[in-house]
């Protein structure tokens, strides 16, 4: 008896010793370059602080916006039974409406059912599903990401174990598109490469190709048989017009590409916390669409089974009710216009302060972001002395600029830039 007790105790003891060491090798992960900006902002107690970090829409008071169209959609679905059995119907409706938004409601791919579409956890989830799909069915392929791109694209394709490459995109001296280098990289990539493209309001640069340039890119993709994967996170924010912002994708569609597209409603419906999105992959025929959809569903099933239903119901109601949709279209334009006004005000304010730098790019760039050209040192200075927060690459979310803080921001930028880049 005594002997038995001793053996049990010593077994427990050695197990607990081992257990204590289970996680000793885990080191803290590096901070995320975008979410860590929000953390720093929240920790700052200054009343004048400004958050230009995360790309989520804010109103002229700097507050998150609840669009009236969502209030209307909420009223319309109030009292609905959120039964388990309706979730797949809600999800299908969302996909059906999302693809119309991006490919155009009269497009042949939609009429002919030549797409595989699944609901996804916002744009990130849609990209992640696609990256996994790419790895399974083209295991040797790489992904070409624009340089620079949204920092999370690197995480997503890395976690799916897809090798990454970059293609030229931004010209720091011009603060615009490096089109020649971009086209060279497209031409020099091995035939049949996967490329990630931002269809509008490029994140982080705010620099988009012109219509003519998109046509050339699409043509070259055809020549090289590249696969275009679009991450549509800001539809409506570049021009204020949802159709116009889908022009690049429609050009690729016209040219007969079988493309893929991630869509997010985090920004253009102000639903960041609800994670509503869609992944679609265009197919040769319906049979292929059925096969691809089943594979995407299989991937999602193992990752998170199915997404939550409430935000999805809101978005599909907005998109399918003609009156509520018309209101949304107007509200998207309103958000885009406010950002545009802030761009102009910031630029004028800097000029009025006598800044000798060329701030033309503030209004040349489009969408939610201004790639300011501020150096990491100047970004740190802005945070330390002026309580102004942005990502280290100098990306400013223009949604954080308001009538009330624009002059303060201009003054701070003028202060940190007037002694040159390394002051
Ligand atoms: C951003 O780039 O700030 C947004 O896409 C939000 C995010 O999740 O990173």
TrEMBL record:
It catalyses: L-aspartate + 2-oxoglutarate = oxaloacetate + L-glutamate. Its cofactor is pyridoxal 5'-phosphate. PROSITE patterns: AA_TRANSFER_CLASS_1. Residues 49-413 form the Aminotransferase class I/classII large domain. It is an enzyme of class 2 (transferase). It comes from the Eukaryota. InterPro entries: Aminotransferase_I/II_large, Asp_trans, NHTrfase_class1_PyrdxlP-BS, PyrdxlP-dep_Trfase, PyrdxlP-dep_Trfase_major, PyrdxlP-dep_Trfase_small. Keywords: Aminotransferase, Pyridoxal phosphate, Transferase. Pfam families: Aminotran_1_2. Its EC number is 2.6.1.1. The keyword Disulfide bond does not apply. In eukaryotes there are cytoplasmic, mitochondrial and chloroplastic isozymes. Homodimer. Belongs to the class-I pyridoxal-phosphate-dependent aminotransferase family. NCBIfam families: PRK09257.1. This is Aspartate aminotransferase. It comes from Hevea brasiliensis (Para rubber tree). The lineage of its organism: Eukaryota, Viridiplantae, Streptophyta, Embryophyta, Tracheophyta.
